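[audit] Reproducing an earlier prediction to check determinism. Same input, same settings, fresh worker. If the tokens differ from the archived copy the diff job will pick it up downstream; this log only records the rerun itself.
[audit] input (700 residues):
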Amino acid sequence: MTKKIRNIYILAVVIIIAVVSAGMIYNKYFRLNERDKIISKLSDEYYYLNLYKDVAYTGDEECKSCHNDIHDTYHQTGMGRSLYKPAQEIEIEDYTMRNPVYDEKSDFYYTAYKKDKAYYQKEYRLDKEGKVIHQLEKKIDYVMGSGNNTRSYLYSENGFYYEMPLSWYTEKAKWDLSPGYQKTNLRFSRPIVQECMNCHNSYSGFVEYSENKFDLKLKEGIGCESCHGPGELHIRRQTEKTDLFSALDNDTIDRTIVNPVNLPLEEKLSVCFQCHLQGDVRVFAEDKKQSDFRPGMKLEEVKSVFIQDNVEKGNFKIASHAARMYLSDCFIKSSGEMTCITCHDPHVSSKNVPKEFFNGKCLSCHNVQTLSSLNTKPEHTEKSNCVSCHMRQGSTKDVQHVNFTDHWIRKEISILTEEEKDKLEEINAPVTLKSFNNSGGKYAPIELGIAYVYYFDSKHSNPEYLKKGIPLLEENLKTFPNHKNGLYYLGLAYLRNGRIQESIKTFEKLLLLDPGNAQAHYLLGNAYEKSKNNLKAIESYQNSLKYFPDNVKSLNSLGNLYYASGKFKEAIEAYYKAINISSGSTNILNNLADINLYKMNNISEAKSYLKKAIDLDPDYMPALNNLGNAYMLSGETAEAEKIFNEIILKDPKNVLAYGNLAVLYEDKGDIGKAKDMLQKVLQINPNDARAKQMMDKLNN
């Protein structure tokens, strides 16, 4: 098409799908997002026209107008009920239960309750007499999970989303700590990251470079378009009384919407695997993120999934259906004929499907008489329950109290002992990672290197992972020197490994290629700070905030550097910005108190911040120590002594508390007690210079 003709078509605002030769090759022009101009020339990269990023999502209500029955049954499935606001009509929980959940490790109690038509979770602690000495509550903003097995709960602040400590476990009808909290209780601070959100609701408006910030208006539940792709073109084809889409009339498949049944095997599996292939590490392709995946693509176009090599056979997780299915002879020997949708209709809840349906799927391939003649142990009949014998039911490695189906179909299943289950949780030796389906193409070695660095930084800080990851990245970035993800994770690996100058050089190179990468600017600031170049660190943190102004970590680091350089006004301003974004940050509250207490001589203001920090976390030692100091400076020695003794009960090796008590007792003239406290310090740290100096003074 000539430039002149193209200009005529643009002025006419016409969407053209030109048929070229008998091969039906299309030059595709669409008026997208209802704008009266052509904004995108679509190539022949994809067969389905709704795979391109400029084609808009419309929401389930648009689908419902034509597909009402499917819409209604789908929204009874677990996927259709995966994220929503709490409401009385959908309650399955018992909010009247009076027995709180107690976490012995943290000494916190938890309970969930209703108040004035709203829902809350509360954390509290009791003293020896049963009196409440700490209490913190948060309002539930969203429920995550269908409730078929479990429900977890989210609260938000300024668009940042966090998981809450309690979950409801449906089968046992009980509240208990949320998955993972038995090992590490993150209380109300566990961030909901992009992958987590995208696999529990339709595309979520993730704010780039944040960890857990999303558009305030979240969509609720996994929608139709998560499996069929964005519906704009499909709806327009059905509703516009024009000939704009007439060139598609001879196609046997509607190219404006994806029906997974019609996809090739890998693309078909990818629709399910986008969420049901958990793995251990997910590495995104260059310039891709979770929401870039559209049904009809291969998953590896967006991300590679890495799993542990030689993993224990009993190790299955709640979202590991794909990896387990791949172990099944039924899948392997079917040459791609058996897929997820062989047994599952995504529009119908499995809870509403009788066992005879699944047995029928098995018997469509397996002959009852042949099975009985080959295996004399059980008698195989058409009424046998195939699933009960050949697909293990039980708890998963990562979520307690659920009875889940292991999708590794086997002839014989060995039931794990409790000891074997516990062993799965142990990480003793460094694991070896491998790509689930050998994805990554020419960048595969770089992505493997990224996987090791990510595993170190987020899961297990064994330096062996850096030893594996760094050489892979160094060697393969020689071939692909502008691979931005590779440079980012190499810079991170150098930073974590203490190779600071190499980290600085790597991040600076990355930022020449990607100057708007807020997180890279932040990490470069970390590296400069470690190299004692505070001016460059301040510049890096400021650059980070240009691209992501709500980066609390950058604001806090910036405040710390201003504080260290004597710019107290600028430090307080940075801390204020940070605490207005994240009011629950005990670290920032303590920093505000610190600067007010020791530099601004504002003891009252400092006490206010410290009490807020301790209200949020009664075990936060820096704030407790500072509060004790604040009481000492204001002459409230009895309160100070009480605080320091409380610290020692919580942390018997806290040298600051012993040292402060020594000072307090010296001021009171109780030299014997002061010496006792100094002896405690020197038992913990024999080289403590301040304790030695003070002891010499008291002995003379």
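[audit] rerun output stored. Observation attached for the diff report: Residues 206 and 214 are 4 Å apart (CA to CA).
[audit] end
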